[in-house]
Design brief:
The chain has ten helices and no strands. With 201 residues, it is mostly helical.
């Protein structure tokens, strides 16, 4: 009788932890999901397995998995396919967490950006017609842009945005277009580009 009670308690415990285990496996299934876990705000992630924000992995664990395991890069999970992100470069994917309007970018995001670049992820690949340098300009993020340029990103890569007035513009022309439209907060990225061009003239 006592063994049956213990077995029943163990089964109930395992079943109670199952939702957290499934949630963790779903989001940690590939590099895209792990990046999301790394960039979640602290109040959206907890080790409490009974919370709806509970995971069996924390942000440091997600970074470790991305930096030390091969499996995240060998597949695109069902969740990522459902979200339609499998063709986005990981540089662009982590870059999207560096938009100051989405909240203060974390140091872990910049750490992963550098890691993805070091492992050879493309820095000039277009996603929805924009390369990471274009996105850094849109996000008005000089630090992001500086990392990209110091890692071989090309200011000459052209936008592929049919129907838009800036279609075919390179990054410098695109910045000029945004400035002519009166977009504020571009001084930092303008300074990075001007310094880069002066040093590489």
């Amino acid at each position: 009788m006592q063994k049956k009670i213990i077995l029943a308690i163990v089964i109930l415990l395992v079943l109670s932890l199952l939702p957290c285990a499934i949630r963790t496996a779903t989001w940690a299934g590939d590099a895209y999901g792990l990046v999301i876990l790394v960039t979640l705000p602290p109040d959206k992630m907890t080790f409490n397995p009974y919370s709806r924000n509970g995971y069996f992995i924390n942000q440091d664990g997600a970074v470790w998995a991305l930096e030390n395991l091969d499996y995240p890069y060998s597949r695109c999970s069902g969740l990522s396919r459902k979200m339609g992100v499998c063709d986005i470069s990981l540089v662009s994917w982590i870059g999207r967490s560096l938009d100051p309007e989405e909240g203060q970018p974390s140091g872990k995001s910049y750490e992963l950006l550098s890691y993805f670049i070091e492992r050879g992820e493309p820095v000039n690949q277009l996603t929805n017609g924009l390369a990471p340098v274009h996105e850094a300009i849109i996000f008005r993020n000089p630090r992001y842009l500086k990392i990209l340029l110091s890692s071989g990103a090309d200011l000459g890569v052209k936008l592929d945005t049919p129907g838009k007035p800036y279609d075919g513009y390179n990054a410098v022309q695109f910045l000029g277009f945004l400035e002519s439209e009166g977009i504020k907060g571009l001084d930092g990225v303008r300074k990075v580009i001007d310094n880069y061009q002066q040093n590489n003239a």
